Amino acid sequence: MACTRCGNHQAFSYDRVTCTCGGSLLVEYDMEFASKTMTKMAIQSRSASIWRYKELLPVTSSEDIVSLGEGWTPLTYMDIQAIGLPVSHVWIKREELNPTGSFKARGMSVAVSLLKERGARYAAVSSNGNAASALAAYAGCAGIQAYVFLPEDCPPLIVQECLSYGARTFRVKGLIQDSGQWVEVGKQLFGWSTVATMKEPGRVEGKKTMGFELAEQMGWKLPSVIIYPTGGGSGLIGMWKAFHELKQMGMISDPLPRMVSVQDAGCSPLVTAMGKHVTVLEAPAATGMRVPRPPDLGLLVRILKETGGKAIAVSQAEIDAAQRNLGYRGVSSSPEGAATWAGLLKLCEEGWIGSDDSVVLFNTCHGLKYGKSPGLESVPLLSNLNELFNKTS
Ligand SMILES: *Cc1c(COP(=O)(O)O)cnc(C)c1O
């Protein structure tokens, strides 16, 4: 593993991922060895999952791979001509189509495979919701008992989802960092393995595959802008790492996309760290973007600067409007996914994105997971034809 801050190398470790200098340690591979078998041609005939890139994933034996078919999600072209956005092309990466309905499946497939490899019996995570349900599913599949800690305002369907996959499920007062202490206690007292982001090597590596897929699906080209809803930031770190790895292997030559982090105006530590003040008008909603203290803010700032990207905040009203907009285009978007559309509109308006740009948005989760109640009262109930004519005229 190599430190992203001081460059020092250390032996691979399942749970030591912070360097003595405080920087994050990321997994390194023998690129020359990997490029012997991971060729553009060879991977074409492999499984439609993240494991098509197995040379650059840290699991040694294929028997330990815990997979539910995560990854290889569609990259859908969006017809934006009709609304006159001044952009060349827009695609949306359909991460809601992953197992458990979010891109968190990618990271948990790798993290749980590593747990299986080391013979772990218990795994725990404190999460805003999607990491918890993904851990629940993958741990269940591997015969590992999951313990998940959720904020008290976690969307009810996600809580139910965790239960249905067999996780011991708890709600905790406060935000994600407050429930982190429960995991630490369980680690000390009961020997749980923690799968918090940037606390073990698997999750960043799994999320990295979004970058590989993007390149492969675009014919080994890259868009000029990526808009990604950012919480802890391991998705962004993963994709940045993926692009560098593909470059090292000579599989892509385009410059890295300008990476844009979208955050909730009520919780936007990355926007602040990039030197911008955000006027907070409302409390942040319970979404994957609500992470007040990302584990390696310094690295995120470096990535945004290195790629010429930026961090922006969007309001709840903008997210709501974007969700409707994507809905009318047939895409069920979570608040986080919708935030990327809201970000696109904002950056077009500012002129930061222009007619030369090709943009990829990430719909990180399915909208249905955030439903509060079915709300059947608002849907007309018909008992005869006359009512239909009355309602539609
Ligand atoms: C976790 C999560 C995010 C934030 O992703 P990071 O890679 O942790 O920054 C965004 N959207 C959804 C739906 C999430 O579950």
UniProtKB/TrEMBL annotation:
<keyword id="KW-0663">Pyridoxal phosphate</keyword>
<dbReference type="InterPro" id="IPR036052">
    <property type="entry name" value="TrpB-like_PALP_sf"/>
</dbReference>
<protein>
    <submittedName>
        <fullName>Threonine synthase</fullName>
        <ecNumber>4.2.3.1</ecNumber>
    </submittedName>
</protein>
<dbReference type="InterPro" id="IPR050147">
    <property type="entry name" value="Ser/Thr_Dehydratase"/>
</dbReference>
<dbReference type="InterPro" id="IPR001926">
    <property type="entry name" value="TrpB-like_PALP"/>
</dbReference>
<feature type="domain" description="Tryptophan synthase beta chain-like PALP">
    <location>
        <begin position="66"/>
        <end position="363"/>
    </location>
</feature>
<dbReference type="Pfam" id="PF00291">
    <property type="entry name" value="PALP"/>
</dbReference>
<dbReference type="InterPro" id="IPR000634">
    <property type="entry name" value="Ser/Thr_deHydtase_PyrdxlP-BS"/>
</dbReference>
<keyword id="KW-0456">Lyase</keyword>
<dbReference type="GO" id="GO:0004795">
    <property type="term" value="F:threonine synthase activity"/>
</dbReference>
